[in-house]
Amino acid sequence: MGKLTVTAFSTLDNIAEEPQLWTGPFFSDATVAYNEQVLAGADSMLLGRVTYDGFAASWPSRSGDFTADTFNAIPKYVVSTTLDHAGWNNSTIIADDIPGQVRELRERENVLVWGSPTLTKTLMEENLVDEYVLLVSPIVLGRGRKMLPEDGTRYTLRIVELELLEGGMLALRMAPAGS
Predict the structure, then answer these.
(1) Residues with Cβ < 8 Å from 55, sequence gap 6 or more?
(2) Cβ of 123: how many Cβ atoms within 10 Å?
(3) pLDDT in tens, 144-159
């Protein structure tokens, strides 16, 4: 059996939207190394449509480093009921029975969800997330798209690992408390 890991850049106030606009002062070689370690454990990526669109517009033109080469080669599954065609190589659309298809995928391999706040919330509701890897920047933005739910549902997690990275980001690895 595989596992499903959610990873994202986040602010102290749970914002994950457009991290390229606010992670810069806290980004370092240690951030890259940590992300590469997380990515190396994945057999496939599962992305929401908005994240997929952003990645598909950016990553295919890059190569020559571990992240770009892995992103471009790894099987990608995009959850969308509106996308007709997924043009980025090795991409498959999941449009129906999302929880069921994700469960099947998770049974076969290690799945990495990168960003994708809407998808992450759905996966949390279905108890499909085995691990959370958040790279928290010491900044409060005050507004933006939140990474984790704010609907009043309680999710208790346990910290598995934490590391203060050069540059100031906190790498926080957590799992559901019951696992």
Answers:
(1) 47, 71, 88, 114
(2) 24
(3) 999 998 888 999 999 9
